[in-house]
Amino acid sequence: FKQKTAYEIYQCDWSSDVCSSDLTMQVHGRLVTLAVILSVALAGPARAASLPVIHLVDEIAPGDYSSYAMDGNDTAVLGNWIYTYADAPATGGEVYRSNGKRTELVADIDEGTDYSSPDNFYTYRGWVYFSAAEDTNGNELWRTDGSTTERVCNIAAGSASSYPANFAGFGDWLYFSADDRAVGNELWRTDGENCERVDDIRVGASGSNPFQLTPFDGMLYFSANDGVDGYELWRTSGTGAEMLTDINTSVSSNPRDFTEFDGWLYFAAEGDTGGVELWRTDGTAENTELFADINASSSSGPENFYVFDGHLFFAANDGTHGKELYITDGVSSPSLHNINTDDADGSSPIGFIKGGDYLFFEANDGSTGAELWYYDGSTVRQAADINVGATGGNPFYNRHWGRVLGDFVYYFASTDGDHVQIHRINVETLEEEEIPAPEAGLYSPGGWVCNACRDTMLQAAGNRLFFPYGDDGSVYGQEFGYLEEPTAALPGTTRDGDLTPWAICFAVLAAATGYAGVRLMADSLR
Prior knowledge:
Elements: E1 10-13, E2 18-21, H1 23-43, E3 55-57, E4 76-78, E5 81-88, E6 92-98, E7 103-107, E8 119-124, E9 127-134, E10 138-144, E11 149-153, E12 165-170, E13 173-179, E14 185-190, E15 195-199, E16 211-216, E17 219-225, E18 231-238, E19 240-245, E20 256-261, E21 264-270, E22 276-281, E23 288-292, E24 303-308, E25 311-317, E26 323-328, E27 335-337, E28 350-355, E29 358-364, E30 370-375, E31 380-384, E32 403-405, E33 408-414, E34 420-426, E35 432-434, E36 459-461, E37 464-470, E38 478-484, H2 501-524
Antiparallel strand pairs: 1-2, 3-38, 4-5, 5-6, 6-7, 8-9, 9-10, 10-11, 12-13, 13-14, 14-15, 16-17, 17-18, 18-19, 20-21, 21-22, 22-23, 24-25, 25-26, 26-27, 28-29, 29-30, 30-31, 32-33, 33-34, 34-35, 36-37, 37-38
């Protein structure tokens, strides 16, 4: 070696008298580059190379004892965990949680084998709220963050039950309906420490039965019955409540399915002229109006509202074409997309869900049965004929069962009209496929397995999809399962408290970089 300056190291070939600088840096720099490439490779490919594997979880109720996890009760997600009702021989029906790798009891609220029957799970501000019962205080409001489980308040005194339900987060408070056994079922709220009744809308013991609580433009809107005007449109800012307007001055207008779109709150209601039609409000009484009278002679019954691509999508019946797909931009009258042209039954579109640049939903064209369809911004097309023939694959099982995870929309469907499995469609290529069962005789909910069929029976936590799964009770009973979707967002390095591909790759990268740095320093000091 010969030193050209005090800070530059050269290596020379004496036979040719050719010297090159920074060779050590180049060699070890390439080592670092190789480590980076290796770490990215270890982290996993961006897209799945094969179908994901379904893992059956039979830990809560081993053997043929059914836990009924995720079936018949709401399910919520907090972090990478799902929280749900489950029945175990030792605890009865209690709160359980799972992240796939670990499944555990959260709390045995009604100790022993008695059932607290937790339900109405709702995640808000770092807690999962739910209703649950125990002998001393009845069915009341509870919450858990996974480590602490506590009763928030005892609304109905003594062992009576208030049955909290219809949760909706609004501002710093969680709003819900509850019956204190004094003024009936009314609107309540909690900040996690205190519980207070917002208003006694229907004076007396009957209660106004508020439901469909929906935040809009700085207020919380809902349907309630004051005992005089029937069920009408109400709202609150948190202190007291007011009826916005009496839409039907004769009977209840029964406003429902509130959906915010383009500065308006759209909903279905029955006006004075009769018939349930499409209404909207901007939050003022004067601008609470009938937007479209789709069936002038009866009720169009608009439902399944969904906002996509600057338009409001819904199903309605004009009295001629049956229940069909309608689309509006909020300016023009809703336009009809007649999918079922064979008869007047309509296609009954349901389960709208955005996946990539498409809007997927279930519809029946009258010849292939209820199948998977999509809207691409201009045209409605069938995405897949899952169950070939007139029976249909029922991809959303006539419910809002789709769940987007990574590059796919997942849902329940049947290829034979009997056995229901997990299916998915690629939101870019529109390739539809069934996820194989891990063994014969295991199925997703449907038929004998579905008790209440909640919309939360498909839940995504991290890059895992959870769903009810099991058999007819002969081997496993009704349990739940999960799969991992590699195209979903990559998890953190400490997810589940175990080593993950990302944790391993960062460790390799750190070790290689440290080694290269030590060698560089050692070589520079020679």
